[in-house]
Amino acid sequence: MRAATVAAWLLALFLGLPVGALLVRSVAGGSLPGAFASREVLDALVLSLVTTAASLTLAVLLGTPLAMVLARRRFPGARLVEVLVDLPIVLPPSVAGLGLLLLLGSRGLLGGPLASVGLELPFTTVAVVLAQLFVSAPFFVRSARTGFAGVDRDLEDAARVDGGSEASVFRFITVPLAAPALAAGMVMAWARALGEFGATIMFAGNITGRTQTLPLVVYSQFQSSLDASIAAAAILVVAAFGVLLAVRLIHWRPVGELRSVV
């Protein structure tokens, strides 16, 4: 037991100390206040928050039906679909960005037809959202699939017997019961989108004010000013930490308090 405790603390310190060193250096070096006054950093922060909100919304809207299908139905090719969903998690982000470019670029499989109707996606803000969606959606789908699979089907059937429509059953029974898993998936998807770098720079580029998210600012500043890079990274850490902490403080409604479906 003592060995396990020591190993746990070693890993916790290994995960926490680099972040702590980053925050201490940003405060002690006095670079953090200057970062908040930097137009480039503030623009990148706003862009990161807007694009991650958009990619998370798309991940939830598109990923929820897919998670339900994977959790509830068996069909030919289901395992192949599961592999395709999980694939972006193990792919290097740069490979993901290259794939998006080859699909949606001006000479890509779909890029040409899209360009012919006036839609050019690469190196735009939309490209940032798509890159974030590609790498982050699997985290939500995996967690949501687990949550939906764990819902007691008898409770859903009872609600249907009481006259509840499928929409009502899903809203008042399925979603509340799967809420912890859905919330965990949303947090993981948002965090992955916020930290996305490789796919973004390959598919959307590093254009200030249009595609330069906060991780790209950290990279750009690192090449010219270490203190500025540290300050931008500290802002990214604080933003991510704040959201993760807030989500963990949310109290989900107990199952016993679920609204009855009429």
Number of strands: 0
How far apart are the first and last residues' alpha carbons, in Å?
52 Å
CATH class membership of the domain at 54-206: Mainly Alpha
- Reported by name, the CATH topology of the domain at 54-206 is MetI-like fold
Shape: globular
- Count of alpha and pi helical runs: 12
Order of helices and strands: HHHHHHHHHHHH
Question: What would you call the structural class?
Answer: mainly alpha
> What does the main sheet amount to?
none
In CATH, the homologous superfamily of the domain at 54-206 goes by the name: MetI-like
Percent strand: under 5%
Return the CATH architecture of the domain at 54-206: Orthogonal Bundle
Mean pLDDT: 85
Low-confidence stretches: 253-262
Computed over alpha carbons, the radius of gyration is 21 Å
What does this protein look like?
The chain has 262 residues and is an all-alpha fold. It has a domain at 54-206: MetI-like (MetI-like fold). The chain is built from twelve helices and no strands. It has helices spanning 2-28, 31-36, 39-72, 78-90, 93-104, 111-116, 125-149, 153-161, 166-194, 198-203, 214-222, 226-248. It is globular, with a radius of gyration of 21 Å. The termini are far apart. Residues 253-262 have low confidence and may be disordered.
